[in-house]
Sequence to fold (418 residues):
Amino acid sequence: MESIAVVNKKRISAFVFAFGISLIILAFVIETPADVLRGEWEIITAPSILLTDYTSYASLGAALFNSGLVTLMGLALAGMIRACFNGYFLAGIFTLAGFAFFGKNPFNILPIIAGVYLYERFFSHQQMRDLIAPLLFGSTLGPVVSQIAFGFDLGWRGLVLGVVIGMLAGVLLAGLMRHIYTFHEGYNLYNTGTTGGFVATVIFMFLKGFGYDIAPQFYWSTTTTAFFSVFTLLLMLITIALGLIWGGKWKNYHTILSNSGRLTADFVEMTDLGTTMVNMGVVGLIALGYIRLVGGDVNGATMAGVLTVFAFGALGKHPRNILPVMLGVYLICIPKIWTHAEPGPLLAALFCTTLAPLAGKFGFLAGVLAGALHLPMVMHVGSLHGYMNLYNNGFAGGLAMLIIVGFIKGLKQDILED
Fold:
């Protein structure tokens, strides 16, 4: 009889493969092959810094193709290194898929992956299979590669420099992630986003020292809401249905809901794959529902947010701990400093769920306050790293947790322990 790990690997592989292939098929249904490939070339040669919605920068078909292709690349990589197909992998692969609508592409993720490999080869005693987090999440620094390669008009020198610095960024990212974790004690789920923010800031400061400044971009589609709403709704319902078919149980779901979500809360290991997939579908529906509730656009950028919430439904997020933090962002917009459907606050409401473990540990009010604190920070930290860290909310969340966790530690260390 096959072990649970083997069964999970087969089921997760089939699910991810079907998702990636479906995106590619949809791309060629929506647009001609020539248009899709032309758009993919535009994506590959884009600087890809924040805010670059590939559905606006190129086209819907090209963005779908790019996401499907990057998803399959991530799946193949996991297979090659014999990674564990668990909650960590689900979180990583669907975050990768989401941001392939919003900054990641086959060109700019490869140098980062190569850098992680170099770290494993020359600086670490870990095996590649144990570095799945920096391998998949580390592509947050993809814009470092793209901006240097294509954003400064340096020709072939920029291309070479972008690849080399991207590899260096991958080495630094893999080496720093464990140390950055100690800053927030696992209460910021996007640990790679915090690490990537620091690495990108150092690179940006060096670039500025040589006279290369970076201004933010703004590509934001307003025409894809109907398509992505239907697509996302179907994806979440299919995920929930598969979860129930694969043995999801209410008793196990109660276990998920009662957990704080603090890293590393791998729900597949903690409960089972079926129950985890039900949770992924439910939190994904909440994310989509928030966008529609406030009248926001469902485009490449917000799909990155929805799919990231969906992804971390396997690694720390559940309805009880994400809703208070999202509510905090919603409430802080009411005084009209920002409106709910603006790109910044809308993305923050999705990605602020990186702070979900704080609500899971300390309760509803703590989550609301964390969300309210998160939005003002995330609206201003992008300039620190030259808009080259895609997980900008992870960086802001990490900075917020530096303050909150540091304060709690000053009161009493054991308060932080689950």
